[in-house]
Amino acid sequence: MDPNKPPYLPRPPGVPDVPVARGRGLHADESLLGRARGLGVSADEPSVGRARGLAVVLEEPWVGRARGLARIADEPSVGRARGLARIADEPSVGRARGLARIADEPSVGRARGLARIADEPSVGRARGLAVVLEEPWVGRARGLARIADEPSVGRARGLARIADEPSVGRARGLAVVLEEPWVGRARGLARIADEPSVGRALGLAQIADEPSVGRARGLAVALEEPWVALAEPVAGTGRGLASTALDALLFPYVRGSPGLGRYKPLSVAQGMEEEEGGRIGRARGLLHTSQEPVAGKGRSTALFLKESEPLGKSEHVDTSEVIPCLQEEEPPKVQADDPGPGSFLLSMFRGMGIEQGRPWGRGAATLGRGAVGEHKDVQSVVPPVVSAASEAGDAHYYAGGFAGRGLSGVGKAVGFPAGRGSGAPLIPKEIPVTPAVRPPKAEPKMEAGGKPLQKVGTMGHPVSIASNYVPIRCRNEAVFQYHVVFTPNVESVSMRFGMMKDHRSTTGDIMAFDGSILYLPKRLEEVVHLKAERKTDNREIDIKIQMTKILPPHSDLCIPFYNVVLRRVMKILGLNLIGRNHYDPRSAVVLSKHRLQVWPGYSTAIKHTDGGLYLAVDISHKVLRNDSVLDVMNEIYQQSRESFKDECTKELIGSIVITRYNNRTYRIDDIEWDKSPKHSFTMADGSETTFVDYYRKNYGITVKELDQPLLVHRPKERSKPGGKDLTMHINVSVEQHTHSLKQLLHNISTSQEAVKELSRWGLEISSDILVTQGRTLPMETICLQSATFVTSPTVDWSREVVRDSSISCIPLDRWVVFYPRRAADQAEELVSTFGKVAGPMGLRLARPVCVELRDDRTETYVKTIQSQLSSEPNVQLVVCIVTGNRDDLYSAIKKLCCVQSPCPSQVINVRTISQPQKLRSVAQKILLQMNCKLGGELWTVHVPLKHLMVIGVDVHHDTSKKTQSVMGFVASLNSLMTKWYSRVTFQMPNEEIINGFRVCLLAALQKYYEVNHSFPEKIVIYRDGVSDGQLKTVELYEIPQILKCFETFPNYEPKLVFIVVQKRINTTLYAFGGNRFGTPPPGTVLDHTVTNGEWVDFFLMAHSIRQGCGFPTHYISIYNTANLTPDHLQRLTFKMCHLYWNWPGTIRVPAPCKYAHKLAYLSAQFLHSEPAIQLCDKLYFL
């Protein structure tokens, strides 16, 4: 048996399965059961459950020793407590510490400080027990049953004295003497045949035909065994144990049971009938409070309070249908006098950290935690009842208990301080029939306690804002969703539509179908089977329609259905669906000279926002070629027959093609020259068919050119868009944009068929776009070295930044300029202009070393630069002047200067410096860029938050390795936001981004400490490249991993704000006034109506727009422990948009995000490896 896996024992019929908690198995011939910590292995002797601190007894059986005991020869020693004196010729079993010697009596397990009781075997008394005459057994140890005519075995601490009864009281982990009843075995004891097994600990074997009463955690009951359940109030039940009063009430779970949960009545020996108030299995060592009988609260159990004192409460638990429980009975109250100042009990509990008046039974560690999460001991509401399943080692409970987790290893005699309980309350007033558990909720977002999110700011000036959102009203009561399966499979979606139309008598005239999901306003049978015939091969198709959901009209699950209805409306208007957008081929603009045509169209999406249901509409254009791929191949063949395949590869690989039979676009990844449409392939069902037959059967297309090669498209995982996408936004004016939107709404409202289709589903689209109120944030102040100024309405300070000195300028003393021979004049003119404009900008330039190259080959550049850097290792900057747009040369230079020989570099195209009238302005911008790359600081804005770190993260795909992506990471290092730390990590598709992020974050925190001699108190992360569908993943996975990074540094718990940045959105903003639409000013923010109801989010347009519409950026705060208000988030984000030093103005995204994008792009497109660490504190990638 695997000692790490719990055994599963048989259970009686009708009783739920209870997994056994972890226990340690038996070793052959040497049963090392229940050893405490630090015991040595005794030779040839079973060491069972030793208690801590026992003395050495010669010639005695040593069973259940505590830790640190010496080896006893040839005799087992059973359960002596620490500090016992030697008893001659007597079996000393389980004495507690500090007991006096009792002559001629077996002194077994007495607690410390007990008085001598004459003529009675004092076995197992707990410490500090009061004497109660003629009283039932109160406070027995965990899991002991009532035994007739037997000594009282297993009393716990705090037991009352019982006259005329032997007090046996074995401690935890003690073995029992043969020929004695096995009562209250400790954890991990072996099975003894022919003995009643009462209160077994975990890991014991099943004993048939024995009464199993009060077993410890997770043991199932034996067949034909009494099942002890919750028939009575249990004061101090042990872990997972219940109590019974031997009543005759019925329990509905067990057929024919006379008692609650009992399989058959317990047998009670003659003369030992159960007395009133008798209790089984009370926990040890608990004290009562002055007002309530809180006696004996055990781990993972509850106690009965007064009727007016409700039991505890568990969070995130569903209640279900309940049945009445048995009448509760109060446990007997424990009477105790108030101990005086000199009381031994008071001194003892003060030594344990418990003061008088403290509510005992509370405040322990979170033990007894089950799958439902953490539960407290005493709450104010009756707990809902759950059935929780957890990992191995977590027990279940029946009829009102919570799962309790194992606390220690086998035989460890480690307990809690007296009176301390843990776990959750037990025994509710009602028992559920079908309990259920709700998964625990994730960490709170910005607001806690279920309050509405405070997401609307107040700073700035109000302004009327219009948007491309159109209100939608929904008057439907319910929508029925069905899943449709075609057998055998039908690939063509149009064929599926046709087959469904043939069965309108069943589905009705009103339906929405996307190929697999069917939406109807009427309810069908649960499963409907229909028959259809495929016209291409006359094969019979079975159609299975199965109902999956009933959707309320305003459910988020209805959004896909509403979009299906919208696609039908767009089709009614004559628009073709290509990709995700709809285009109008009737209004196509043909450019014959270029063999192109432009289709105008719309991108549409129905969204559920804070303001309700809206239709988001935007303008889109599709640019198509008039000729086919085969036409392009024929033309290439006519021009270059010898290199036909190579030219086709260069021309076609990476292009986007559209297939007219399904209006889908594909990227050409490869060309299969050795295959043709006559080749066969394997279908999903295992059958083989040729491409010719496939297109004929599924799309009704006859392929004429049978010898043409095949184009290969490799599907990719969903990621952010990339590549040569033919879809683009035409930069039309605001008036043209709004006119197109209104024209679409007019077409919908005037089309009777479209209106009828919408009304069938209870939808009504407004004829006007949304007009609401936004705000414009205050303009920021730009700070230079000795000058400050407020930005203009156009947020452009290109003149000021070259007129005054930057914050810090790095003297450029050793730099080299490389240029080809034919660009010598331009190079000399550029260096001369540098000297003229550097002074006013605060830059100090020395004369560079000019190196003329004999040609402009890549090898010439690389070898010459390597030679120069080797001869002069202290070069500060490398400037290369190149001719033409040559990515191979640019990549070679950057790879050399960023990876192999780290040195900041500047590559300048000769065309940029060929116009004399613009040379001065160009030289000024280049000098600013060069100063950044050397570590200089250009400008900043005032950020009032102190000890703040701002981080930007973006991801780009590596062009050389299609399966690899690159993450750029940039973090601020000072309060001025002028020092930055950058890193790059490469990762595979299945690798989480957080793995590389963790390395970068720890390195940035260490660098921040080196610069500031302290860690940042607040960290704001701007994360780019996250879609709406990934927000929950980031919240539940990435953020907890980030928080774990902080644990690397002792006592470091910074405040964290995590903001997702989305710039590829379809939201458009317009300034509205006087019934006219215009371009909104920079700093326009909209934080209501069109925002997401689940998050604190806002739309900000930080940049200036000279022509066209305003495309804002969407910011979503998914984590905020810094308690930054919406105003703080919006102002901080707007400030960060001012700090991109490659542009003297505001940009669409915060500067750290833009820096991270530039770094990731450089590494993925040109470097294909991680840059040298020596450059991490410079903006070398600008």
From TrEMBL:
SUPFAM superfamilies: PAZ domain, Ribonuclease H-like. The keyword 4Fe-4S does not apply. Residues 877-1168 form the Piwi domain. Residues 1-16 have a biased composition (Pro residues). Its cofactor is Mg(2+). It is found in: Cytoplasm. GO terms for biological process: cell differentiation; meiotic cell cycle; regulation of translation; regulatory ncRNA-mediated gene silencing. PROSITE patterns: PAZ, PIWI. Residues 628-749 form the PAZ domain. The keyword tRNA-binding does not apply. Residues 1-23, 427-454 are annotated as: Disordered. Keywords: Cytoplasm, Developmental protein, Differentiation, Endonuclease, Hydrolase, Meiosis, Methylation, Nuclease, RNA-binding, RNA-mediated gene silencing, Translation regulation. It comes from the Eukaryota. Gene3D superfamilies: 3.40.50.2300, paz domain (2.170.260.10), Ribonuclease H-like superfamily/Ribonuclease H (3.30.420.10). GO terms for molecular function: endonuclease activity; hydrolase activity; piRNA binding. One of its GO terms (cellular component) is P granule. Belongs to the argonaute family. Piwi subfamily. Component of the PET complex. This is Piwi-like protein 2. It comes from Ictalurus punctatus. The lineage of its organism: Eukaryota, Metazoa, Chordata, Craniata, Vertebrata.
